[in-house]
Design brief:
Elements: H1 2-40, E1 44-51, E2 54-60, E3 64-67, E4 70-73, E5 77-84, E6 87-93, E7 120-126, E8 129-136, H2 142-169
Antiparallel strand pairs: 1-2, 2-3, 3-4, 5-6, 5-7, 7-8
Length: 180
């Protein structure tokens, strides 16, 4: 009788493990399908942010960043900030907006000791309003690295647009004409 009960428990555990494995495979396949659809639409996945509902993808295409379903027009971005527990620790202000928005432009400094259980977010300010990209409060620097990757991607795009705007604002140099 004892062997029969042990066998039933073992069978139950095997069926439970198979159920978990099939659920995990289903979620992995659905994530892969979503990634393929985004890549086919011309987007690049910059960060996979864990949320209570699963994963939120932070993606980009030529004209927009996307935090889940929220589109952020790249041309409209004025300020990007990294927030820890709501306080800014790094920010970048687009040159075209520096006269409009007060603040300090800085870089994201590495914190080698890590910060456990602090809330990391990235604030993206546009003409249309603010978008808060919640990067979580996961231990062992996971949230910090997610915030870093989102901030760095937005900041790099802003710097690139600032450089292009500066190049377009420079007066053309006088072309030398050969003597006849």
């Amino acid at each position: 009788m004892r062997d029969l009960i042990a066998g039933l428990i073992a069978l139950g555990l095997i069926l439970f493990a198979l159920g978990l494995a099939s659920t995990l495979r289903f979620h992995r396949l659905s994530r892969d399908r979503e990634r393929r659809e985004l890549l086919a639409a011309g987007r690049t996945v910059l960060a996979e942010i864990p949320t209570s509902d699963g994963l939120t993808l932070f993606t980009a295409d030529a004209d927009h960043f996307y935090s889940g379903d929220t589109a952020i027009a790249k041309n409209d971005i004025r300020v990007v900030k990294v927030l820890i527990n709501g306080s800014p620790i790094a920010s970048y202000i687009a040159r075209r907006s520096r006269s409009e928005a007060p603040g300090h432009s800085g870089s994201f400094a590495d914190r080698p000791e890590g910060i456990a259980h602090d809330r990391w977010d990235v604030l993206v300010r546009t003409r249309a309003g603010d978008t808060l990209v919640g990067c979580g409060s996961i231990r062992e620097r996971v949230s910090q690295e997610l915030a870093r990757s989102v901030f760095d991607a937005v900041k790099a795009d802003m710097e690139n647009r600032d450089a292009k705007a500066d190049a377009n604002d420079r007066p053309p140099t006088a072309a030398t004409t050969p003597a006849l």
